[in-house]
Amino acid sequence: MFRVGLGFDFHPFAKGRPLVLGGVHIPHPRGLQGHSDADALLHALGDALLGAAGLNDIGSHFPDTDPEYENISSLVLLERIRQLVRGQGFEVVNVDMVVVAESPRIGPHVELIRQNLSQVLGLSRGAIGVKATTMEACGPIGKGEGIAVQAVALLQDVNEPIRPN
Questions:
Q1: In the chain, where are the structural domains located?
Q2: Which of 52, 64, 83, 164 has CB 3.0 to 4.6 Å from 3, enough for a Cys bridge?
């Protein structure tokens, strides 16, 4: 009756692009490299939702070879993913993400990210976790070369009633 999915995404920084995480434009000298808006948070979340529903990864649904998805908002993709998940008979119960980056600081943007996700997924803000950590200057993320995000999603089969203990 419940399904869990895990998602992970990494994008290197690129000059001349805006930085978008969770649908929020975040002031930063570099954005993330990618075909869409390169929103690593929403891409990781999309993979977690698709995985929990037993569907393929985000790239198989929205390939980077398709011009339709060039610079598209990942909030639009997330809405489409929610519809795919619903089409499989599942509703989102809660989601949780951790952003791994040396910069920028994510804390000031968490409430806007949660608001965006609440609107698209139809969840209360209390069902949405967004946290951040650093790599303590280790590896490519620690050297400021990009941002990674890990996400987990819990789905409930709407066709299966909850059974009492």
A1: 2-157
A2: 52
Asked if residues 58 and 50 have their Cβ atoms less than 8 Å apart, the reply is: yes
Q: Hey, is 48 helix, strand or coil?
A: helix
Name the phi and psi angles at 107, rounded to 5. -45, -45
Written as six digits, the tokens of 124 are 């209360």
d(CA 95, CA 123): 9
How far apart are the two ends of the chain, measured CA to CA in Å?
A: 14
State the Cα–Cα distance between residues 58 and 52, nearest whole angstrom.
Answer: 12
How confident is the model at residue 159, as a pLDDT? 85
> Comparing C-alpha atoms, which of 50, 62, 138 is closest to residue 102?
138
Segment 78-99, tens digit of pLDDT: 999 999 999 999 999 999 999 9
Q: Which residues are 100's β-sheet partners?
A: 133, 148
Helix (H) or strand (E) holding 5: strand 2-14
- The CATH code belonging to domain 2-157 is 3.30.1330.50
